[in-house]
């Protein structure tokens, strides 16, 4: 009896990634071999025929993405990405399927995110920085201005301590092109405004209390 190589099933987990529509198109091309194989796209309970269809989603932030190559008799290939799970799977894979799996793994490694990072431009931190001059002015107007300055100095320190090890650790899939990404101000306008207004109100209240006492 001649030797017959058994087909292999494999699951590969990769690090968290950040993917844009451009990246999804590249992944689709590899998985479908430039459109020659059928690939089913499932996104948050919806099914799409082409990656470009995802741009029609009202919420561009995708919670669950699954790309499955279903082209019998070829082995089944699956890419599954959620916020905290990202894996590639092949069922009864032959050399061709394992080769595609390897190319997808290398592609996703290039799109991986760091698990932690320092975010000096986090909207809350920037809001604190913008409010410091105003809060400092009110602190100086208080009768007991020295304790006020001490307390004021702790505010940015607390903000830095909280932000210095901002956890990333999850995947982000955005159904928009990288070139259409919103600016920093567009992404964080509401948070920045809230932090600045909160600091101003705290300064006014503190000043009023100081005058009354």
Task: Summarize this structure briefly.
The protein is of the alpha+beta class and 213 residues long.
Largest sheet: 6 strands, antiparallel
Low-confidence stretches: none
Helix fraction, binned, reads 40-55%
Assembly classification: single chain
Question: Secondary-structure element order, as H and E?
Answer: EEHEEEEEEHEHHEEH
Structural class: alpha+beta
Cα-atom radius of gyration: 26 Å
Helix tally equals 5
Rounded to the nearest angstrom, the distance between the terminal CA atoms is 99 Å
Strands side by side in the biggest sheet: 1-8-7-6-3-4
Apparent shape: elongated
Strands, total number:
11
What number is the mean pLDDT?
77
* Share of residues in strands: 15-25%
Can you describe this structure?
The protein has helices at 21-32, 95-110, 123-141, 145-163, 184-212, and strands spanning 8-13, 18-19, 39-43, 46-48, 61-62, 65-69, 76-81, 86-93, 116-117, 166-167, 172-174. By secondary structure, the protein is of the alpha+beta class. Strands 1-8-7-6-3-4 form a six-stranded antiparallel beta sheet, with helices on one face. Strands 2-11-5 form a three-stranded mixed beta sheet. Strand 6 and strand 7 (76-81) form a beta hairpin. The longest helix has 29 residues, at 184-212. The model has no long low-confidence stretch (mean pLDDT 77).
């Amino acid at each position: 009896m001649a030797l017959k190589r058994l087909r292999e099933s494999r699951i590969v987990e990769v690090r968290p990634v950040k993917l844009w529509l451009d990246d999804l198109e590249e992944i689709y091309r590899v998985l479908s071999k430039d459109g020659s194989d059928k690939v089913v796209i499932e996104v948050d309970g919806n099914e799409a025929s082409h990656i470009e269809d995802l741009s029609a989603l009202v919420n561009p932030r995708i919670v669950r993405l699954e790309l499955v190559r279903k082209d019998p008799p070829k082995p089944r290939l699956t890419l599954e990405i959620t916020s905290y799970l990202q894996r590639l799977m092949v069922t009864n894979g032959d050399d061709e399927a394992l080769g595609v799996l390897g190319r997808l793994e290398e592609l996703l490694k290039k799109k991986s995110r760091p698990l932690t990072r320092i975010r000096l431009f986090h909207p809350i931190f920037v809001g604190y920085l913008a409010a410091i001059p105003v809060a400092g002015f009110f602190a100086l107007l208080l009768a007991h201005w020295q304790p006020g300055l001490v307390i004021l100095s702790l505010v940015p320190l607390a903000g830095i301590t909280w932000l210095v090890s901002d956890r990333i650790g999850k995947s982000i899939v955005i159904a928009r092109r990288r070139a259409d990404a919103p600016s920093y101000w567009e992404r964080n306008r509401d948070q920045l405004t809230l932090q600045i207004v909160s600091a101003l109100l705290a300064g006014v209240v503190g000043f009023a209390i100081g005058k009354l006492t």
